[in-house]
Amino acid sequence: MLSILSKSTDSYLYLWDIARDENWFFGDVDTNFAIREKGKPMNKTADMEAIIYPEDKKMLHDDLQLIAEGKKQVHNMNYRWMNRKGEPVWISCRGTVINDDKGKPFVMIGMVSDKKLKYLYHPLTKLFNKNKMLLDLKESFLGKDRGYFMFVGIDNLANINLRYGRKYGDDVIKHCGEVMEKLVHSQNIWHVENNCFALYLDVDTEGKVREIYNRLQDELEAVCTVSAGVVPDRIDMFQGGNNLYACAEMTFEKAKSSGACTITFFSQQDLENRIKTIQFLDEMQESVNNNCKGFYLCYQPQVRTGNYQVYGAEALLRYHSDVRGEVYPNEFIPLLEQSKLINQVGMWVLETALQQCKIWRQQIKNFRISVNFSAIQLREKDIAERVLKLLEKTGVPGSALTIEITESVQLQKNDNLSDILAQFRSAGIEISIDDFGTGYASMGYLKSMNVNEIKIDRMFVKGIEEATYNYRLISNMIEFAKNNSIRICCEGVESMQELTVLEGLSPNLIQGYLFSKPCNKEDFEQAFVDNSTDEYRRHMDYVQRLYKYKDRMQVIYFNTKDILRKTDLGLWIIRINEKEQEYEMHTDETMERIIAVDRKYTPQECYRYWYDRIKEGYSDYVQKNVKRMIESDKVVQLQYPWIHPELGEVVVRCSGKRVEDSDGFITLEGYHRIISNIEEN
After folding, report:
1. Can you name the residues that pair with 301 across neighbouring β-strands?
2. Within 13 A of 221's CA, how many CA atoms are on the CB side?
3. Do both 393 and 518 map to the same domain?
4. Number of folded domains in the chain?
5. How many CA within 13 A on the CB side of residue 451?
6. Which of 67-71, 223-227, 414-418 shows the lowest per-residue confidence on average (mean pLDDT)?
7. Angle, vertex CA 152, rays to CA 150 and CA 158, nearest 5
8. Cα 547 from Cα 491, distance rounded (Å)
9. What pTM was estimated for this model as a whole?
């Protein structure tokens, strides 16, 4: 009968003689699987187990044992068989038990299908996919009030593919799946995306979750690392598998943003923040649909060095919410970019800024407006055409517009970027690299992009009168820019001391709170454009005072430098990355001279040059005091013999203190002085 029925279905019918432990299969099952000739019995424990995927054998054995003992009447399981190519194939196995006249299990009749589950497993790893996961979460796992759902992703898979090839990357993914199967039951693993897996962990504490995660890292150490987001399965928290998955994905994204090899656990506060974010996105979408209601522009002047005349202004986007009040740009701009709303808002910004620029150019000849463009905007195929149409619409020449892009734009995949920038330049539009020094752009890259302007970020301008490293960095940037006809604008200038030092380096433009905070168009016009207003006259008086203060500060500053030079007081900065065992020493001109170091040395070479010349037996003493500088908030002084390349052994006095750390480095600043030839009381 089963043989006849098998001809009318694409499933494989079977009969298990429980007492004799024999399996009979019907249909063409032997075509794809290493099953004995159909119509002949198979011994379950020998022949059958030979085709069962190793990781699934125990699960199947345990279920069939319960059936044989009369503890179950229905068999319903998904597991894997090995096909004739030696590849695992998911099958759906169903069966019903028939008892003998004594009520004991006699036979089980059912069917096996390898068609039903094809859309439920990932073709690369043969693990269940996202579709199956959502079904399982809804039907099998959700609401157990124990267990944890873990979302795991391979760190930097794109880099692995780029370096070793896509096939190697696929092998890494498959290896990760295999390792996970050793740690977690295969029924609780899903390959949900290219480099991401989901695991259901039947444990009751976060500590046990961490143990599994650490074991996973250890097993994968030679191949890759993984990050994970973890959510507890609690019925009071989630009402559906989609919600559980969404929260796990959210938590995983937080882990990734914290760096590689990171595990992050779900936070209710994170969920509330995400909900608020979604609500905020809905609000901004409504704003965009209503001609960007709530968005407005502020303008910050850019002034020429030397005379402090207004050169132009940077247009800065702001947002006022009826619900939230004033919202900071670092809150709403990332959301605009993530949602692609930046494309619509960006064109509104450009048109509004150009219209305002046209008005101000009637009073300030050659007034320029700078507008920020994101990498998202520059990926729009017709962006150049749309910008040129806006210039035509507003009647503003391309020479009045500067488009600011960040260094990170070069890292964004954009095959059309060069063509877009070329179209901008052909229309007279200038290109500026914003926040230069904070990203990855090289000097060579700037030349290849043919940029017109570099804007040096505030982090390098801040405290430049005391920060030798920043001074030399900006000095080098300005020298490079001048040699390549690139304009330099220093951002974030807030003090007279900073202005004084920068004036000595001669950038082209200055921008910052020292001259003006970003202000609305009315205030900008009254202070910088309309020479008939009281505000304009007050600003000009302020500029005159800046002249006087600057001259005094220059005398003090340069006299100070002269004193340092004449007294042989050398300034240094030491930067230490203890984790990576990286050490740098940055020196001023006086320090270079008194220790006779080659100016061409890199900071790493300079550090090694200084350290290796500490007299034998004193290295531990110096290291101990450097550690005191790191651990203390006070100035630490030390004195030690040092082998000068020309003078031989000299006595050195140092004083140093820990300052603000940056880029993973501990930063120390201080002075170095040879005291062997100093007369002391």
Report:
1. 313
2. 4
3. yes
4. 4
5. 30
6. 414-418
7. 165
8. 19
9. 0.59
